[in-house]
Specification:
Elements lengths: L6 H5 L4 E10 H13 L4 H14 L9 H8 L5 E13 L1 H5 L5 E13 L5 H7 E5 L11 H5 L2 E2 L11 E10 H13 L4 H26 L6 E12 L1 H5 L5 E12 L5 H7 E5 L3 E3 L6 H7 E2 L3
Parallel strand pairs: 2-3, 3-4, 4-5, 7-8, 8-9, 8-10, 9-11
Antiparallel strand pairs: 1-6
Length: 298
């Protein structure tokens, strides 16, 4: 489900404009345009929504995302609290359970994040939305795949080896664009550079949104999503212990399924493998099974 565009925004063409931006990452922009087209949406409208969300979040590392908005609408939780840029943080059961109902936490860029042994999987899933770019150990009482589903570790964006170009986007909200340029000026940021960083972070989230709401449909709430990891190794026990849940892998640089996993167990528990750079299967897996499960989106 793509970002929501209100009726007034759809009709308000007089306040939209054509913009040209210098120094945009060619590959990132092509991926962004491809995703918006796959949703059947106007690129300028989606672009405006992303910038608006970025500005509403204060220009921090967290951008309110379509998948999150959908969960908020569904009342799975009402408030997202962001905790970031700390050297060390210790959290026990009381710290989490004492917060108001409907609150979830987003932990970002914490050098050492420690969860106490009294925290189990149910508590972690109830109160933690995401753990991003943090050094954290898996709590003993939390299953491996459940824990990984809460983690995301993005590599830092770099222009090294990337082709930059000037891009033109139509139907961009004029006021939103003016506000974004003012933000860049206030923070002494280059417009193209900041947009590249935003696209770098938002594109994986756009992919996740599309996969969750168009590919998984009714089974999304029973599926663990493991995304944006450097390396993940899965064995038979990992898949057995999550039953009756399923798992989906997305943007894993190196994904390995160990030899003790049968093709039957794999088919039963693994919903899909999307945009993973390298995937290693057990030797006994058929070629057709591998081809059917590894997908590149869009």
């Amino acid at each position: 489900m793509p970002p929501r565009i209100t009726t007034s925004e759809k009709k308000d063409k007089s306040f939209s404009k054509v913009i040209t931006i210098r120094g945009i990452d060619k590959l990132l922009f092509e991926q962004f345009v491809s995703l918006t087209r796959s949703w059947g949406k106007n690129t300028g409208e989606i672009f405006s929504t992303i910038l608006s969300n970025f500005l509403q979040s204060g220009g921090g590392s967290h951008i309110y995302l379509p998948a999150l908005e959908k969960r908020l609408e569904g009342n799975l939780f009402k408030h997202l609290e962001i905790i970031e840029d700390l050297d060390e943080l210790f959290i026990n059961y009381e710290d989490l359970s004492s917060v108001p109902q409907g609150v979830k936490f987003y932990f970002n860029n914490i050098k050492k994040l420690i969860f106490a042994e009294d925290i189990n999987a149910q508590v972690l899933q109830e109160y933690v939305y995401r753990i991003k770019n943090c050094l954290v150990q898996q709590p003993r009482r939390v299953k491996k795949l459940v824990f990984l589903s809460l983690l995301q570790n993005y590599p830092e964006y770099s222009t090294n080896g990337r082709e930059l170009k000037d891009v033109t986007i139509r139907n961009v909200k004029e006021q939103t664009w003016s506000n974004f340029k003012a933000f860049c000026q206030m923070h002494n940021s280059n417009v193209g550079t900041l947009l590249n960083h935003i696209l770098w972070e938002i594109i994986p989230e756009m992919e996740i949104t599309q996969i969750l709401f168009s590919k998984l449909k009714n089974s999304q709430m029973n599926t663990l999503l493991i995304s944006s990891q450097q390396e993940v190794v899965i064995n038979k026990a990992d898949l057995l212990e999550i039953a009756p849940q399923h798992v989906l892998f997305h943007r894993i640089k190196k994904l390995t399924f160990q030899e003790d996993i049968s093709s039957e167990l794999f088919v039963e528990r693994v919903k899909g493998i999307y945009n993973c750079s390298s995937v290693k299967f057990p030797k006994q897996f058929s070629k057709l099974l591998k081809l059917s499960r590894v997908k590149y989106y869009p």
